[in-house]
Amino acid sequence: MKMRAVLAASTAMLVCAAGLAACSNDDGGGGDEGEGVTLTFWHNASTGAGKQFWDDTVADFMAENPDVTVKVQSIQNEDLDGKLQTALNSGDAPDVFLQRGGGKMAAMVRAGQLLDLTDLVTDETKGLIPEGSFKANQIEGKTYAMPIAVLPGGIWYSKDLFAAAGITQTPATIEDLDAAVEALKSTGVAPIALGAKDAWPAAHWYYFFALRACSPDTLEATAESMTFDDPCWVEAAENLEALAATEPFNEGFLTTSAQQGAGSSAGLLANHQAAMELMGAWNPGVIGSLTPDEKPLPDLDWFAFPEVPGGEGEPGSILGGVDGYSCSAKAPKQECADFLNFIAKTDVQEAYYKAFNAPPVNTEAQAVITEPYLQSVLEAYNAAPYVSQWLDTVYGQNVGNALNVAVVDLLAGKSDAAGLVESVNAAAAKA
C-alpha cells in the first residue's frame, strides 16, 4: 500500500510512549492453560449472517481444540465500547474482543490490559496478512490485535436511484456531490441517509472533511499534541456546515439510528428511500440484512469521498483502517493466540467475507471477492497516499466521544464551526 502513514499506529505509539513500562506485559497474560480451558469472546455481530458466522467459527475451533471451550457473547455495536471499558476497568474483561485500535487501543495497552501477541502470531498467519495490516494493530512494533478485515470508508449508493435522477457519473468533487443532491431531491428520495442518533455516523462527514482540509503532517501533529488549533479544523467544520445547508439528509436524521431496523440510515438505502450513505466497508452486509428479502442490494455501489478544493490533504487519502481482535492480559495465553490464528485462516476469512459482505484482511481470501464495489474499495485503499483510522478512534474514547457529539450539535444548529473545535479542545484539555 502506498501510504505515508497509518495514523492509528502512529497515534497509538505516541499515546503509549509516556507510559512504556505499563505498556509491557512480560507474562503474556494469566489464566490456567491446558486441559479444560475456557475463553470468553465478545463481538459486535448481533444478528443475521454475521452472528451465525461467529457461532459456526467458534464451533469449528472447538472441534479442532476439544480441550477449549469458547463462550460467545454478541453485543450491539453501539453498546460494545462502553461495556468493554467497564469490564476492562473492573478486571473482568472477556478473553477475546473486538479491537477498534488507535488511541483506544493505546489506552488499554498503557493500562496493561492487553496481551502482547508479537511472538504468538504464527509464520503461516504472517504469510497471509500484509505487514501494513499488522502495523495498524501495533504499538512500538508490538502486536496487540489480530487483523481480520479491511474497512475503509466511502459513499455507498443506489445505482437505480442515481439513474432515475439522471446522474451518469459518481461525484468526484464536493461540487459534484452538491449537484447530485439537487438532482436526487427532484425525484422525491432523500439524497443522503444519515443516522445521527448514534453520533459517530454524523461525525464521519466531519472526519472526511478534515482529511481533505488538513495535511497529513497536521493530522499527525494533532494526534501528538491533542490540540486542534490549526485553521484546517475550523475549515473542515465550515465545509460540513455548507453541505448541511443544502439539506441533503433524510427527514428526522437527528433521531435516526444507523444500523438497527428498516428505519435506520442503512435501512433507508436498503429500501430505496435514500440514495447514499457515508459509511465503512462493513455497510453492504448491514444493508443486505435490511432489504425486504434480506439479500444483498442488487444495485449497490461505492465511490470514494469527493475531493474538496482548497484543502491541504493529499488527494485520494482515505479514512478507516483494519478491524482486529485482541486478547485481554489475563486471558489463557496459548489458547487465546490459537483462536486468533484460527480466525486468520483462509477458509475462515472466506466465510467472513461471505457472511459480512466485507473485505477480509487475508490476501488469499480477498481473491474470492466478486462484488465490483468491494473490489473498488480495496483498489482505493491500496492506492491511497495516506490512510487514517477513524478520528474518534485515533483520539481515544473521551475526546472521540466529545468530537462526535460536537458534530451532531453543529448539524442540529446548536453550535457553529468554531464552537465545534472549541468543544473538542475543551475535551482534550481534560483528557
Q: What is the CATH third-level topology name of the largest domain?
A: D-Maltodextrin-Binding Protein, domain 2
CATH architecture of the largest domain: 3-Layer(aba) Sandwich
> Largest beta sheet: what is the strand line-up?
2-1-3-12-6
The total number of structural domains is: 2
Average pLDDT confidence is 90
Organism: Cellulomonas fimi (strain ATCC 484 / DSM 20113 / JCM 1341 / CCUG 24087 / LMG 16345 / NBRC 15513 / NCIMB 8980 / NCTC 7547 / NRS-133)
Signal peptide: 1-21
Keywords: Signal
Protein name: Extracellular solute-binding protein family 1
Summarize the helices and strands and which ones pair or pack.
Blueprint: H1 7-17, H2 20-23, E1 37-43, H3 48-64, E2 68-74, H4 77-89, E3 96-99, H5 102-110, H6 123-128, H7 131-135, E4 138-139, E5 142-143, E6 146-150, E7 153-158, H8 159-164, H9 174-185, E8 190-192, H10 200-213, H11 216-225, H12 231-245, H13 265-270, E9 274-280, H14 283-290, E10 300-303, E11 318-319, E12 322-327, H15 333-343, H16 346-356, H17 363-366, H18 372-383, E13 387-388, H19 391-394, H20 396-411, H21 417-430
Parallel strand pairs: 1-2, 1-3, 8-9, 11-13
Antiparallel strand pairs: 3-12, 4-5, 6-12, 7-9, 7-10
Signal peptide: 1-21
InterPro entries: Bact_solute-bd_prot1, SBP
Organism: Cellulomonas fimi (strain ATCC 484 / DSM 20113 / JCM 1341 / CCUG 24087 / LMG 16345 / NBRC 15513 / NCIMB 8980 / NCTC 7547 / NRS-133)
